[in-house]
Prior knowledge:
Blueprint: E1 4-6, H1 21-36, E2 45-47, H2 58-70, H3 78-104, H4 109-132, H5 142-166, H6 171-197, H7 205-208, H8 212-256, H9 276-279, H10 281-288, E3 295-298, E4 311-313, H11 324-335, E5 340-345, H12 356-370, H13 378-392, H14 403-415, E6 421-426, H15 434-450, E7 455-460, H16 464-469, E8 474-477, H17 480-497, H18 505-515, H19 520-531, H20 536-545, H21 550-563, H22 567-582, E9 587-588, H23 589-597, H24 614-622, E10 626-628, E11 634-637, H25 640-646, H26 663-678, H27 686-697, H28 702-705, H29 716-730, H30 736-747, H31 749-761, H32 768-778, H33 786-792, H34 799-808, H35 814-830, H36 834-852, H37 857-872, H38 876-892, H39 898-918, H40 922-940, H41 945-961, H42 965-982, H43 988-1004, H44 1007-1027, H45 1033-1049, H46 1052-1059, H47 1065-1074, H48 1085-1105, H49 1109-1125, H50 1132-1147, H51 1152-1156, E12 1163-1165, H52 1176-1191, H53 1195-1203, E13 1207-1209
Parallel strand pairs: 3-7, 3-8, 5-6, 6-7
Antiparallel strand pairs: 1-2, 4-5, 9-11, 10-11, 12-13
Helix pairs in contact: 1-6, 2-4, 3-4, 3-5, 4-5, 4-6, 5-6, 5-8, 6-8, 8-12, 8-13, 12-14, 13-14, 17-18, 17-19, 19-20, 22-26, 26-29, 26-30, 27-31, 27-35, 29-32, 30-33, 31-34, 34-35, 35-36, 36-37, 37-38, 37-39, 38-39, 39-40, 39-41, 40-41, 41-42, 41-43, 42-43, 43-44, 44-45, 45-46, 45-48, ...
Amino acid sequence: xxxxxxxxxxxxxxxxxxxxxxxxxxxxxxxxxxxxxxxxxxxxxxxxxxxxxxxxxxxxxxxxxxxxxxxxxxxxxxxxxxxxxxxxxxxxxxxxxxxxxxxxxxxxxxxxxxxxxxxxxxxxxxxxxxxxxxxxxxxxxxxxxxxxxxxxxxxxxxxxxxxxxxxxxxxxxxxxxxxxxxxxxxxxxxxxxxxxxxxxxxxxxxxxxxxxxxxxxxxxxxxxxxxxxxxxxxxxxxxxxxxxxxxxxxxxxxxxxxxxxxxxxxxxxxxxxxxxxxxxxxxxxxxxxxxxxxxxxxxxxxxxxxxxxxxxxxxxxxxxxxxxxxxxxxxxxxxxxxxxxxxxxxxxxxxxxxxxxxxxxxxxxxxxxxxxxxxxxxxxxxxxxxxxxxxxxxxxxxxxxxxxxxxxxxxxxxxxxxxxxxxxxxxxxxxxxxxxxxxxxxxxxxxxxxxxxxxxxxxxxxxxxxxxxxxxxxxxxxxxxxxxxxxxxxxxxxxxxxxxxxxxxxxxxxxxxxxxxxxxxxxxxxxxxxxxxxxxxxxxxxxxxxxxxxxxxxxxxxxxxxxxxxxxxxxxxxxxxxxxxxxxxxxxxxxxxxxxxxxxxxxxxxxxxxxxxxxxxxxxxxxxxxxxxxxxxxxxxxxxxxxxxxxxxxxxxxxxxxxxxxxxxxxxxxxxxxxxxxxxxxxxxxxxxxxxxxxxxxxxxxxxxxxxxxxxxxxxxxxxxxxxxxxxxxxxxxxxxxxxxxxxxxxxxxxxxxxxxxxxxxxxxxxxxxxxxxxxxxxxxxxxxxxxxxxxxxxxxxxxxxxxxxxxxxxxxxxxxxxxxxxxxxxxxxxxxxxxxxxxxxxxxxxxxxxxxxxxxxxxxxxxxxxxxxxxxxxxxxxxxxxxxxxxxxxxxxxxxxxxxxxxxxxxxxxxxxxxxxxxxxxxxxxxxxxxxxxxxxxxxxxxxxxxxxxxxxxxxxxxxxxxxxxxxxxxxxxxxxxxxxxxxxxxxxxxxxxxxxxxxxxxxxxxxxxxxxxxxxxxxxxxxxxxxxxxxxxxxxxxxxxxxxxxxxxxxxxxxxxxxxxxxxxxxxxxxxxxxxxxxxxxxxxxxxxxxxxxxxxxxxxxxxxxxxxxxxxxxxxxxxxxxxxxxxxxxxxxxxxxxxxxxxxxxxxxxxxxxxxxxxxxxxxxxxxxxxxxxxxxxxxxxxxxxxxxxxxxxxxxxxxxxxxxxxxxxxxxxxxxxxxxxx
Length: 1226
């Protein structure tokens, strides 16, 4: 065995693309050696030096073939020659692929070569035999079987290797491919071993057929086929996961955007400037110290007054700022040798709604997600998405979050990328919120200490308080002389680039040296002003009169340009600057032109008010203080400091009266423009509403139903107004006129056009933008005034206009019921109007059937929604009938969209199977749920939520049978494995899967399983309390499950604590009285009583276990008495309480009939009325035993037992499984 070692087990193998391909290559050999063989003779040994990537060129394969041919003692027969020719022709199809695979995927060289060598060995045996026996060519031979199998295997190797290359970062794909390759090795080794054991010669087919070797090889062959399918399944799943991750990332990016200031163009960085910074002693000290703590670059009071905007930097081109400190930040981003560079400046923070620190955190998270991969790989990216998604589920946008909620996501992301990122925070002193600055500085200082090699750079003016808040930082004061040299260098090159300025070179440089004050932008504006001078005298005059400081420069430009403008032009200029100051993103020329032309909500813009040549007009009125992007016609202020100047209070350097702007007034003007546009008469068209609603509600039938109806073309400003009007309203001052304008919009038909338009425009097609607008309006500070609130009509948000249009639509107009459907969707998402929603669903179902016909796709969808709704209301028998009928019709009706039709029918089938499950028709439920899952898997794929929900329901039915616990646990774990990485642990489906794991582990028994169950249950309870609150039935179900587990463990104190989370009957009654008829989370009174009854049964068990049996008996008797007095409504929990009471009475030795009378009134005679006369004890005993069967979900056993007494259960509701999260089973 010299020179060879057994392939060792592999632990911690990196299966990502960055890992060694040979670590993956060894995985199949390890699986074979440790799992697929116990025979030491079959163990595969690895040659020393395997990591040197051995190759197997095609020439070796052909040489081996020639060797076999030359080794025969006689020529082959014609029959064999023909077969060999066919084999080689077939094999030749794969030679090129094999050669490519060997060259590009050397880790599978041995695998490919093994398959080919096996074929050639058996072919050589065949060749030898046919040279001896001329009749052998007419007989089937083992070589034919080997060739066919190897041909199939080569196909599978090629496909599997491609899947691995596409999804190398997915451990499941890598594992599946490894196991497939291990079985291929298994086939090759066993086939070769069979040949060796037969004497390395010709093996007749008759000896092979029926032999143990054939059976083993056939089994391995089947396993190879199964694993090949598994590889394709995992690759498909990985592809869907990637698609889902990309969609989630896009959603998260959209969620982060509102918190981020828009980027604007800036002056390009001048090469050769700022190089002094890396030669500074403080910078060297910081670098030599491993970048421990932040580097704080600070200026001196009065230097670098005006700053620039956000810049997220992946390369430095076009990311430079225009003033000293920002120029330094840009230079540092250019010279950083880390993979990621995050550069942020606070200049735009005051112009945005969110807290400035939120914008900083959002910009970092945005770049990480935008890059397409996390700092450390796919898993870290998924964790980041999970963290951010938890906030997304709670807030309409990142701008609504608190800084202490967002920053931990940043810390976790950056901590995972030590030595791989540079974070530059510029102009922090421009943030006016001192509390936020202090918090951020403390966190940056801590991050610099905690993350090895973290490169955190803070650039600001010098502040004493910053010094105290950054005790771990390295201060680097700006070298004033070096900055002045940088500015002089910039100006010198500008003069060199403009020959007309060379005569003034010395004068210009002298002026800059004396008065630039370290401001690059000031120097650039002066140079631009001089370049446009027509004569030398004008150059001298402009140079002499050019003011010192940016504020005076802005004031001079506005004043001088105002002298040549007419009054009307001055007003138009003020309007343009106001719109640019308020805009949430840069506006286009077309949008600005439309905005200035709008006058009121009811009068369309007059063609005479629209700018004829908007580009030329804006340049004429606003130059040089605005820029127009040649790529997209976006209009921007030349610098953020101009915005600060325009919004500055009265002082030494303020704009003229005609340009006096306040932030609130700017937003009020923009709010009026947006609402004016949304309320235009063109958007009050019923035909437009008809078209939009049909397209949104009936996408599969929109073309047929909307023939001749076209959605009107809207102005380009409409999209901006649609997504921002509420933001501007919320930032406006209290204004009755604006409130009245908003009120007319919220109550008019134009609101419907807007709501349906954003539904269509928003990627994902949901009501998110509508709900965000509602939240913004409710947060408007003016809403504190009652008269403002009343004028806006916000109390009728969405419901008012939709209900109003219903009154104008005829009863036989399908549009009426499409609008009603949309109203029901809003009720479900935004308002706890569960009874109203139920009435809407029923009405839509009935009317759509009458108008469109019972087989129409929308009718069937409406009926299916109604069936699902009554399923949630525990009307299981009715739901069963409706959903079965809908499924039958859907299955037999052709759909305009086959995929959509298939999806709908299998969702209906899944709900139908769920209705059966709750009635304990478990065998039927499992069969139909399996069929629904298979259909949804084929239609939607393994990562789709509808498929996973069907799998969840299947697992619950399997669990209910009690003898399929392992199958149920495997499904729960699979859902958890797929769903949590894409979303989070506190997403609804994930929590259902996790609590399912807990309940199955509890039923499996054993202390280890019970400990795991408690861990899962505790985490779900914490998540549900945070997400849903304590006044929620699913939270109560989790508490009840944990209480039952504590009872199993003997932890009675903890059990009492969990039971305290379930409301008492008194609390339920009080909640009903406060908000009848629905309870606190929208479920009806009966659903909460289920939880109360079960809690009392558990509480009685706790009393009994702690020596208070008499109290337990008294409490249960009172519970059953109250339930009977209230009408004796059926409840599975009451059945449980009866069993607990009977067991307690029996344990105390009470009379038999006293024990059995706990079950009085539960059954009746099959032939008529309930008559319990002779044989009452027998009947009650049978009823008690039947109750045990029912609580074990053995409906058949219970019914058979009662039939022996000619009895049946009186109320099926007594044993139905209630809707729950899931409902606790004790």
